Amino acid sequence: MQHKNFEKSLELKKKIHQLIPGGCHTYAKGDDQFPEFHPPYLTKGEGCRVWDVDGNEYIEYGMGLRAVALGHAYPAVITAACQQMWKGINFARPATIELEAAEAFLKVVPGADMVKFSKNGSDVTTAALKLSRAYTGRDMVAICADHPFFSVDDWFIGTTTVNAGIPQSVRDLTVSFQYNNLASVKSLFDQYPGQLACLIMEVEKNDPFDPQFLHGVQQLCKDNGTVFIIDEMITGFRWHIGGAQTLYNIVPDLSTFGKAMGNGFAISALAGKREIMELGGLYHDQERVFLLSTTHGAENHALAAFIAVVKEYQEKDVIGHMQVQGERLRQGLNQSIAEHGLQDYVGVHGFPVCLVFSTRDEQRRPSQPFRTLLLQELIKGGVIAPNLVLSYAHKEKDIDQTVGIFHKALAIYRKAIDEGVENYLEGEAVQPVYRKWNQLEKNH
Fold it and tell me: Quick one: which of 26, 45, 197, 425 has the fewest CB in 10 Å?
């Protein structure tokens, strides 16, 4: 593939680390997640396309870490946010748009009674834990070990290898179970009777949804007085406008939303049953929970963006479009993988709107160097794809162009399998930040 010019990006790479620890504000966007000599620094985006500081154009599949489902700079959402900004962003008292947004949310998430907005996913997952602990009088938390990220806060980061600064006493309060393994959930309740305040998991990630498992988990929580929390950060507004809980007809005690609900604007939501949520309110005789109280928790323009997103989903078949294009992408990539004889080395997994790929070496072992090689060749061809997350802006021509670029990249991958990855990899292989980032490759 023809080399792109990364001169300005490489210069920025040197400067940015002098001012920003890690060189970014979200680790998944960091230099250690992308090929060493192909680190595009982006300047703008429109639809499913982005441009870097050197003027290179790419089809993008990260989509703001899954936060952009309609497309970059989506006119209806940008217009709604801008119009609200001219009315003011943040006041000393609640704005009427806060009620409007709450009503809109609770209409599309029918299992919830109340909702509280914030700015990012960690805010609301941690708030859900706090509510659960107050509601149950317990301290311990159960998380799904196969779901790679729940929060930046200590209760989760303490379970990763990047746990410096987190007391052992905090780490010991979080225990884990395996997805689609009901016995592993039951063993936690047996091992810690009457101690688990809550259990948090995603409904579906890369492995197929198993209704018996999910309903079994919910029943175990009910039988043991444990709050059942569903994390809908990714599945909300991608699997269904009301989340995977609505699609699969299961009502949790609490659930958390974010990412695509604002199409890139900073907004998240904690929702759930009134008897639990009300502990963070005023009108009850229980000990009050300091739930969520952030200066920017209900910025008016982010709420306006959310309301506009809901309207777009109600007027257009956003999810249906993403599913169709996701299947088109999966089929095209699988055909290319087969043509190169790489079925044992490259895999495409997951729900159509939110696919991921796995990479293996010549010994069929999960491989970081081969992942780096594939990312390297895709970027050189004009695709940024740390995963294969689609948006409403991805059209057939974008999918077909992507498949063509993948096909050329897989030809290099094939050569690297036969001749050695060191002959084709430029620079060092990227290394994972979290121990569970690549759980997919362990499972496939």
Answer: 26
